[in-house]
Structure formats: structure tokens, C-alpha cells
Design brief:
Oligomer: single chain
Helix content: 25-40%
Distance between the termini: 5 Å
Number of strands: 6
Order of helices and strands: EHEEHEHEEH
Largest sheet: 4 strands, mixed
Radius of gyration: 14 Å
CATH topology: CBS-domain
């Protein structure tokens, strides 16, 4: 799990989300409203939006994000997280703890992993 979590407001524009992701060198950002996880946006989502001719500086993140994304807990095994990601064909999973978003686990984090909790990755 990477504790580097880029957080973007649902009312932000795609270009701002992309800029935040580039600055932090990550492939996804969690979308929050009033401190609550409401979605996730990834590099692929932004690429799809551009391919659909949406204008990044005037298109809201909320129009392109995956709403209510699946999440894992810090105790979820790496094997279970990997299975979930492969079966649903996504590359990033928010890790949710008692105090909200703790991090993001990516497919890259799990490559060659054993049965350890995602928070140990």
C-alpha cells in the first residue's frame, strides 16, 4: 500500500486532477466530498475523457470518476486484493481504515506479493 493518497474534490476539473496526480507521481486520485470517499479517478479515466473530446479544463472530475469504488481494509491480504483487482479489471484500490482513506494499493504494489496484509506492502 502506498500512503501517498492524492485527494481531489468532486467539483475539481480534470486538468487539476491530472496535475495533482503528475506532481505526486501517482496513477489515481480519490474523490472526496465533505471528507467522505465518493469516487476514484485514474489515468485511464482521464485518457478516456480526452478520447471522447471532453475538455479537461472545463470537465468536472465527477463526470468521469468511478463512483463508490470498491475498497479494502488494511487487514485485507495481498492475495485477496489482487484477486479483486484482476476479476474487476482495475489497477487501484483505496485502503479504508477507521479514520477514512489510509492509502492506495495498486496492481504494481501487489506484483509478486505473498499473503501479507495490503498495509504491509
Amino acid at each position: 500500500m502506498s500512503p501517498t493518497v492524492v485527494t481531489v474534490d468532486a467539483s475539481a476539473t480534470l486538468d487539476r486532477a491530472a496535475q495533482a496526480m503528475m506532481e505526486r507521481k501517482v496513477g489515481s486520485a480519490v474523490i472526496v466530498e465533505a471528507g467522505r470517499l465518493v469516487g476514484i479517478i485514474t489515468e485511464r479515466d482521464i485518457l478516456r475523457a480526452v478520447a471522447r473530446a471532453l475538455v479537461p479544463w472545463s470537465t468536472l472530475v465527477s463526470e468521469c470518476m468511478t463512483p463508490e469504488p470498491q475498497t479494502v481494509s488494511p487487514q485485507t491480504s495481498a492475495e485477496e486484493a489482487l484477486s479483486m483487482m484482476l476479476s474487476h479489471r482495475f489497477r487501484h484500490l483505496p485502503v479504508i481504515g477507521d479514520k477514512g482513506v489510509m492509502g492506495i494499493v495498486s496492481l504494481r504494489d501487489l506484483a509478486g506479493s505473498e499473503q501479507t496484509p495490503v498495509s504491509d506492502k
